[in-house]
Amino acid sequence: MKLSDSSADESSVQEILSESEKIFKERITSLGVYNPKAQILADNTIRIEIPSFEDGEETLATLISKSELTFQDEDGNVLISGKNVKSATYATFTDAYGLTQPAVKIDFDEEGTTLFTQATTSLKGKYLYIKLDDEVIRSPYIDETIDTGVAYISGMESKQEAIQLASVISSGSLPAEFTVEATDDIAPSLGEGALTAALYCGFGFYFALCAVMVVGFLGMGFAGVIVFSAGMIVLFLILALMGVMMTLYTLAGIVIAAGLLAFGLINTLKQMKKEAGLGKSVLASVRNGWKIGKNTYWKIFGGAAALAGTLYCFIPGVLKYTLMSAAIGCAVALLIYLLLGSFCFKAAGVITDGKGIVPKK
What we know:
By secondary structure, the protein is an alpha+beta fold. It folds into 3 domains: 1-66, Alpha-Beta Plaits (2-Layer Sandwich); 68-170, 2-Layer Sandwich (Gyrase A, domain 2); 189-351, Up-down Bundle (Multidrug efflux transporter AcrB transmembrane fold). The protein contains 8 helices and 13 strands. The strands form 5 sheets. Strands 5-4-9-10 form a 4-stranded antiparallel beta sheet, with helices on one face. It has a 3-stranded antiparallel beta sheet with strand order 6-7-12.
């Protein structure tokens, strides 16, 4: 992005670029991007990096718009400016027909609340023009005084449009105008490096878990390896079919799901071995150990689900992606554990005659 007018002195230009860099980062963050990239370069330009969006050009245009918000009367007199906006957030708005639609909720500061009350009082029976830069984005009809200090901008076509508008309003207007010098599609090298490291860690965890189950429970451990492998394959297939992007939050969710499944399998194997140690037959040990392990797994799964549901209501928006991927992964892990686990453990108990759970005599 290049500064359109750089005729000011050097110190002023650098101050404009510094403030603009901060605003760009705030706007990118509001789109759900972790660790936003915006960097001041030579020739009064700022380089920004954003992920691929379906409406990429529109998203870029929104990010670099000066976004000077004003509330005006029909004669063009500015009644309230963006400096009086305390916050702008995505919300839903129910219109007079009972229809719910995406909107932007604007909270004014103390001065803005007073000005908005005065504006809606003087404009009863008239229109209030809400402008972003030189474009009228909404022109609501005022039929009563609004003294709550809250206004809604509704009529958005999508949730994404409302989120983008809220981001540019809440971040404030840019101190100057910028133009797009060039756009490039680049490979996410950092993402590739992080993904490679994650894959190494994932394979390390997988082989370590397999070793623990096979060494600790011999033939029965192989059944655990089969169940865990099947669970992970199904999980990755579902994520691929859903088109889920492999991000930090997705990986965190996968780790939570894998950990829950691994714990359930090892705990079940330990319970089977404990039952066998009491002198019970192979099938009785498998059956009783499975029942105890399954009950424990249900309790942990229920507790995790309750905790995730509670956290979902309070954590920031971008972290919700972790819970979403974890929820998908845990649901898959539970189904694989219940549907495949019982069959594999019973089959392994018969085939191996209980090797790995029945103590040597």
